[in-house]
């Protein structure tokens, strides 16, 4: 409809939609208020607050005969939000921190007025706040349309403008952001990806242009040195995003760094659009064996705005075979008899030969029917037709991730989960501090682009890569 092109941005919040979409949700906030430490000049820490959604997913479906209806109950899942005050009245909004998109937008006052409140909007003004542009004396409108569409089909429509924002005691003047007067997304979003995926550039076929987005603005104003940040998605009480620096206390083992790659192997001149690194191998393992799902070269997008993950259809199918999952037509998903069956099984993701493990159970959730009957432990992994995978919070919550948007590098290490407030912060001036290059420097591109999915029969591969691991 309104959006002419839906390209790479499309999957960015698809899994969130599974989580939050149209569903009734409630959350409790047993966390500290978001606050900010300005430890020195040139970097700052934002403590993200976590919102646990105990939501019900109501699926209506008509199989031609009967009417089938079920409520879906997930375990508590999470997404990461920060609070931002906008404009001369310090209107407070809570926005989802998204490495998978590049626009910052919030709901406008109009959305929240019953007169204008679209009947199908799922935006919750009470939970996430809104910005009243008309009553902010510092606001200037660009009179440019905001037209955003995400992969889950949710949209945000409105206009762009600039205003001052406060993040705790830091003020950033004249930040570009969108004010939505229609959305069916659940919350506003602060996209901290590349300017090449800004909606004004990506979606606008005539007269497209880039504008200075939030990470670049922090550099322009001298708040940080380099468009870079570190994400620590601790589930319990310490989640934070550190702009412009690395905190060496927050990870264990080596901080391996990987070149960010283009999404298309054949076009060497294609600009980098998404935070994606080279994945060589995906496997499943337990104490006794490792089963290869696929190997070769495929981009893996590291997306904090996706709650679970998205895999190409072939991976989902191999996975279902290896784990002996059952397909449920009503849900259009695979499930295990119960979650304890997959408790001791891990995904292994090898990036340029370096192994990271992630519990398979983090990608599944218990499913109960409305009447309380239990179906099983249902896969929350989206299947796609894409030639890339998306790893969301299910993977990232165990990792410390450093992104350097200027030199196109992403570093990953296992998180050091600690309640300690000790920090060992090093500003990013040039390279990622303590970033280690893996010995395998072959990245996804014109020479390395094939990825082989293994056949559906569960077979233990005699070849198990003997590779360095990122663990201590
Ligand atoms: C900003 O906040 C930090 C941490 O709360 C505090 O140490 C610092 O003094 C504050 N700065 C100002 C100017 O208030
Ligand atoms: C908005 O917040 C800033 C910084 O915290 C403060 O200086 C200012 O007085 C606040 N304005 C209003 C209207 O509350
Ligand atoms: C809301 O959804 C219903 C059913 O899909 C549709 O008929 C109606 O036009 C929608 N309303 C708006 C304002 O989009
Ligand atoms: C959101 O709204 C757009 C535009 O009306 C519509 O095409 C899309 O299907 C809606 N998505 C959801 C999940 O409601
Ligand atoms: C929403 O914003 C657009 C762009 O400024 C405008 O054309 C439209 O009339 C607005 N709609 C409402 C309901 O305010
Ligand atoms: C697209 O570009 C034209 C010309 O620069 C501009 O008028 C229009 O507002 C832009 N639309 C979006 C969605 O940025
Ligand atoms: C808004 O206008 C300002 C001033 O012309 C410009 O610098 C900025 O890039 C524009 N922002 C957007 C999102 O169009
Ligand atoms: C992990 O955190 C603890 C507590 O702050 C600290 O003592 C330890 O040195 C950290 N580990 C690493 C490898 O930084
Ligand atoms: C896990 O280990 C057992 C042997 O203890 C083996 O029979 C089983 O197939 C393994 N499963 C997976 C998925 O690795
Ligand atoms: C696979 O699952 C089916 C149905 O749940 C079960 O009957 C069968 O024994 C399982 N096979 C293996 C190898 O676990
Ligand atoms: C489904 O969940 C909703 C929200 O809790 C509840 O109101 C409704 O009664 C449930 N439906 C059934 C059939 O249990
Ligand atoms: C990759 O490693 C090989 C062998 O160490 C080296 O010869 C080559 O220059 C490296 N390539 C790049 C792009 O760093």
UniProtKB/TrEMBL annotation:
Transmembrane segments: none annotated. The active site is at residues 98, 303. Residues 80-413 form the Peptidase A1 domain. It catalyses: Preferential cleavage at the carboxyl of hydrophobic amino acids, but fails to cleave 15-Leu-|-Tyr-16, 16-Tyr-|-Leu-17 and 24-Phe-|-Phe-25 of insulin B chain. Activates trypsinogen, and degrades keratin. One of its GO terms (cellular component) is extracellular region. It is found in: Secreted. It is an enzyme of class 3 (hydrolase). Its EC number is 3.4.23.24. Keywords: Aspartyl protease, Disulfide bond, Hydrolase, Protease, Secreted, Signal, Zymogen. One of its GO terms (molecular function) is aspartic-type endopeptidase activity. Pfam families: Asp. Residues 1-15 form the signal peptide. GO terms for biological process: proteolysis. Belongs to the peptidase A1 family. This is candidapepsin. It comes from Pichia californica.
